[in-house]
Amino acid sequence: MSERDPESSSDTRFAYRNLGLAWLMAVLVVPLALAAVLAVVRGDKFEDNLRDRSLAALSSAGLSGVEVVFDGRDAALSAPEDSVLTPAELDRARGVVADVDGVRAADLDSDGSGTGTGLGWLIGQFWLLLLLSFLAGSVLTWLTARFVLPNEDVLEADTGLVSEGLL
User: Fold this and answer.
1) How many domains, in total, are found in the chain?
2) CB 3.0-4.6 Å disulfide test: which of 72, 87, 101, 135 passes with 118?
């Protein structure tokens, strides 16, 4: 090891100065953009898709006249007041809708107003996207620092100075 001059040393902290913007993008901007796209693109479409598939399943089971209202992935089933469906048939319809792929819960609802959990589902998706974006941003930041920034040994060899061990 070469003898170190007490007047000279290298400071390797410069290597981390430009990573702040990438970290900010990974933590804030990307999840917010993904949540906005999710809200616009998937807003009512997945509820309509579940409703159509549930009505098709009810029709194939011979249960017509059941109204299905979705709030997120939760279904609320009701029968019109002039319906001739028995409570047993409504319970059977609830089971048919609950078995449709993508339906989280199916409940009998006398007023057809839904169960009120659609916003909770959207917020849950937002937080999942936020967590995934945070993890992806952390890995991306680590990989960027690992493969783009110079290694401590390379800095010492290039400058001839011994680093302070900051990397």
Assistant:
1) 2
2) 72
Residues 51-68: tens digit of each pLDDT: 999 999 999 998 888 889
SS3 category, 153: helix
Under 8 Å between Cβ of 64 and 42:
no
78: three-class secondary structure by DSSP: strand
Query: Helices in 1-68 by DSSP H: which ranges?
Result: 20-24, 30-42, 45-60
pLDDT at 70 over 60: yes
* Residue whose structure tokens are 């997120």: 72
Q: What is the mean pLDDT of the chain?
A: 76
**Are 100 and 155 contained in the same domain?**
no
User: Do 125 and 89 share a structural domain?
Assistant: no
* pTM score, whole prediction: 0.46
State whether the Cα torsion 11-12-15-20 is positive or negative.
negative
Same structural domain, 109 and 48: yes
**From the centroid of its chain, how far is CA 87?**
38
Domain hosting residue 125, numbered range: 19-41+120-159
151 in Cβ contact with 113 (< 8 Å): no
37-54 confidence digits (pLDDT tens): 777 666 667 788 899 999
